[in-house]
Amino acid sequence: MRSIKKELEYCTTCPKLCRFACPVANVEYRESVTPWGKVGMLYFLSKDYVPKTTENYELIYHCTGCLSCREFCEHQISVPDILTHGRKLAYEDSRHHKRLEKGLKNIKKVGSIFKNDLNNKIRSELDAVYFSTSLKAKIFLGCVYTEKHVEKIRKVIFILERLGIDYVGIYSNKEFCCGYPLYSSGFEKEFVNYIIKIKNNLSGTKKLIALCPTCAYTLKALYQQYDNGIKAEVLTFSEFILPFVKAMARNKKKITEHYSYHDPCFMSRYLNQVSEPRELITTTGAILSEFLWSKKNSVCCGGGGMFRSTNKVISLDMAYKRIEEFKTIGSKAIATSCPTCLNMFKDADPDIEVIDIIDVVHNFINQ
Ligand code: SF4
Ligand code: SF4
Question: Is the CB of 79 under 6 A from ligand 1?
Answer without folding.
Answer: yes
